[in-house]
Amino acid sequence: MSHDPVFSLDEALARVDGDRETFQMMIELFMEHGPKDLAEAQAALGAGNAIGVARSSHRLKGAILQFCAPAALQACKELEESAKAGNLAHGGELHTALEREFQRLLDALCQARDKGMAA
């Protein structure tokens, strides 16, 4: 397992001009909507709906991008690209990897939020 940071607090804060209140709101929105997008991707995957998988993972990718979280972003991109190509053969594996990275990001964001986002 990598010891690299799950996300870059400094880069993510720079995206909102250092506004910690806005960043807190972004975390809350991510915590509310991210799991829904992840679940929608899984449901679409189960239904063999490549377009639905691509759409849900694309939305999630946009949210993850705001947090400068490379591993979660890469996992999301891989699922989205596979779905856009109409290839769901490895969709389950890709979704599992995304779930794992999504949870790591969520945990790290909660930890940052609970610590008052100290660097």
What series of H and E elements makes up the topology?
HHHHH
How can the largest sheet be summarized?
none
Q: What is the annotated CATH architecture? A: Up-down Bundle
Count of domains? 1
CATH level-1 class = Mainly Alpha
Mean pLDDT: 93
Structural class: mainly alpha
What is the C-alpha radius of gyration, as a whole number of Å? 14 Å
As a percent range, the share of helical residues equals over 70%
Low-confidence runs? none
- Number of helical stretches of at least 4 residues: 5
Principal-axes geometry comes out as elongated
| Total beta-strand segments | 0
Proportion in β-strands: under 5%
CATH fold-level label: Four Helix Bundle (Hemerythrin (Met), subunit A)
What's the CATH H-level homologous superfamily? HPT domain
- The end-to-end distance, rounded to whole angstroms, is 22 Å
Give the helix/strand layout.
Blueprint: H1 9-15, H2 20-46, H3 50-65, H4 70-84, H5 91-114
Can you describe what's shown?
- This protein has 119 residues and is mainly alpha-helical.
- It has a single domain (19-114), classed as HPT domain (Four Helix Bundle (Hemerythrin (Met), subunit A), Up-down Bundle).
- 75% of the residues lie in helices and 0% in strands.
- Helix 2 (20-46) runs antiparallel to helix 3 (50-65), helix 2 packs antiparallel against helix 5 (91-114) and helix 3 (50-65) packs antiparallel against helix 4 (70-84).
- The relative contact order is 0.17.
